[in-house]
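S2.1 Query sequence (Nucleotide pyrophosphatase)
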Amino acid sequence: MSQRQTVVIGLDGAHFELLRPWIEEGKLPNIASIIDDGTTADLCSVLPPVTSPNWKAYLTGKNPGKFGIFWWENIDTDNRRVYYPSHRKNEQIEYWEHIAEDASVGVVNVPTTYPPKSVDNACVVAGAPDGESAGFSTPESLEAELVDKFDYTVTTKNRMETKPDATVEEILERIDSRFKVAKHLLETSDLDFLQVTTFYINTLHHFLWDDEATLEAWRAIDAHIGDLRSGDRNVVLMSDHGSTEIETVFNINAWLEQEGYLTLKRDVSDFMYRLGLTTNRIEQFVDALGLRSLAFKLAPERLKQKVPDEQGEVHKGAKTDRVNWDESVALASGQGPVYLLLDSSTSEYDRVRSRIVEQLTAVRGPNGERVCNDVLVKEEYYSGLYEKEAPDIIIDQREGVHIRGGIGNDDIFTDPESEGWRAENKRRGLFAACGPDFTSEAVDPMSILDLAPTLLHLYGKDIPTSMDGTVRSDVFAADSPIADTPIEYRDSNERDAEIRRIRRIARSLDY
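Output C-alpha cells follow.
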C-alpha cells in the first residue's frame, strides 16, 4: 500500500487535443509539469462517451450493463417510457468506498453521486449536473459549512444560448468553489485520498470550444492544480471522455423515422413550435419579466421537457408522448444508443436489428465521411444484471460527429453552424499522473474501467472480481512499493451492492 496521499482531479470532457496548443504556449504550466514529470495516456471511455454513464463506469470499474445507466435517459421498451433511472446511481459499491475501509477519503463534485452516500471515514459532496441544492453532502453538517464558507452551489443553469456571459461567469465561480472545497477538506480533514471533479468545463467545450473564455477557465483550473501539487503527494488527472469540434450533426430519430422504423404522433410540443414557443424564447421572455427563478421552481419538470428546442425537438422524458409505440420498431437516444421495440426472442427482432446495423454502418454525412466508426449489438458490448435493458444497438460515433437524440426534427443532417454546440464528446479522454508512486514514462492507452482497480491497488486493496477493468501496473514507478506488491482479488458479485445498501439503511434506522 502506498503511504502517500493521492489526489485525483477529474476534468470533464478533457483531452490533449484541446490542451496541447495552450500547453506548448506556456499557458497551462502546472498541467505541463505533470505531463513532463509523470506518465500520460489516452483514456478510452465506455460507449456512449457521455458524462452519464462514464463517471459511474469510472467509480465502479464496471460496464454499464452492471449498473443499468446507459445515457442521460433509458428507454424502457416494456413499459413504453423514456426515463432516467436515478434510483440506480447508488446501487453499486464504488472504489473509494473500499479505500475508506482503512483510509480517510473525500469525494467532491463527481457527477452521478447525488444523493451522497454515507460511508464511514468519508466526506462526500455530490456533484453536478444531476445534484440538488440541498442534501448534497455527508456528513450533513458539512453542507452548512460549505455554504457559509464558500457560498457553495451544486448546479448552474445552462443559459449559454441566451445569456452566455453570465453563464461563463457562473461556471468560473463553480470551478473555483470546487477546488476551494477540495483544498479546505485536505487542510481540515487529514485525508488520505481525495477525488475532486470539475464538470462545467465541458459546457464551455460544447458551446465555445477553444475560445478565450474556455482558456480562461482552463487557466483557473491549472492554477488550482498547481496548488494541489506537493512533493510527496501523488496527483492524477483524468477525464470521463474527450471533446472535439463538430463537423457533422446526425439526427438519428429523423433517420429512423424516414427509414420507416419510427412513427411519431403530434402533441402540445408541435403546437408550441408552430407558435414559436421554444426553450430559448421562453427563457428570454421570463428573464425579461424577472420571473426566471419563480418559473423554474413552479413549472413541473415534465412540462419543461415538453417545450421544443430551436430545431423543434423534444428530449428525454417528453419523447414518451411523441412516440407512436404501436407502430414503431426503434427509438434512439443521443450519441449512440438505439433500442428496438420488438420481442428479442423473435426472428423479426434479429432481422430488423441486422438491417439497422447494416444501414447505420453505411450512413455517410454531407462531407462523405461515415457517421459511425462501428455499430455494435448489445451482446458484444454489455454484460451484467441489466444487460436485458441495455440498448439493442450501440453506435461508436466518428470523432467530429454529433448524434442528436431528440425527436421532432425533419432533417437527417443539420448544419453545425445552426447547432448550439461547437464541440461534441469523443471516446479519447486523458490520463496523466505524477508523484513518487508513478512512472515518468508514457504508457499505452487505458480504459476508464482500469482506473478503479489501479487506484485500489495503489492503496493495497484487493480487487473485486466483479470489476471489468484491470490493474495497470505499468503506470507505477519501479521504486514504488506498489511495483513489488502482488495484485490480490476478492470474490464479489453484483448482489454485494444490494447487501451493502440494506446494511446502510439498517444502520440509519439504528437496527
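The CA atoms of residues 329 and 398 lie 25 Å apart. The first helix runs from residue 16 to 24.
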